[in-house]
Specification:
7 strands; globular; alpha/beta; single chain; 131 residues
Length: 131
């Protein structure tokens, strides 16, 4: 009898950067989330979501400095990939821009940790695990 392998969710986030500011979709307190679908890479998922939600064009080559987070929470476990993007084609009108030192006080906690980690050069972290 073989044991079924554990399955986990995988998501990709885009951290939009412009003029020393970080962008969130209007009204959100975190980065744009892309659920990775079968048959697509994490960067392709980000491109798809950015084009659908923000109506701008992004090249997979302009998504860089990925951070991987293995996260545990009330909805289970996930692997989250965070990509930085500072080049795109088109005008973004549905994004709120924040200075890095004046982020919303109610920003999603694990995403804040991801941003701080990226800015410190960290490429992998774990979040939400009981120690």
């Amino acid at each position: 009898m073989s044991k079924e392998r554990f399955k986990t969710a995988s998501s990709a986030y885009v951290i939009l950067v412009k003029d020393d500011k970080v962008g969130f979709p209007k009204g959100d307190k975190g980065f744009l989330l892309s659920n990775i679908e079968g048959g697509e890479t994490a960067r392709e998922a980000v491109v798809r979501k950015v084009e659908d939600s923000l109506k701008i064009n992004v090249s997979v080559d302009n998504l860089y400095e990925p951070l991987t987070m293995h996260r545990s929470g009330k909805n289970g476990e996930s692997f989250d990939l965070f990509f930085v993007c500072d080049k795109w084609d088109g005008n973004i009108s549905n994004v709120d821009w924040y200075n890095f030192d004046k982020l919303p006080k109610d920003m999603i906690e694990f995403q804040l940790l991801a941003l701080q980690s990226l800015m410190s050069g960290v490429k992998y972290l774990e979040y939400g695990w009981k120690k």
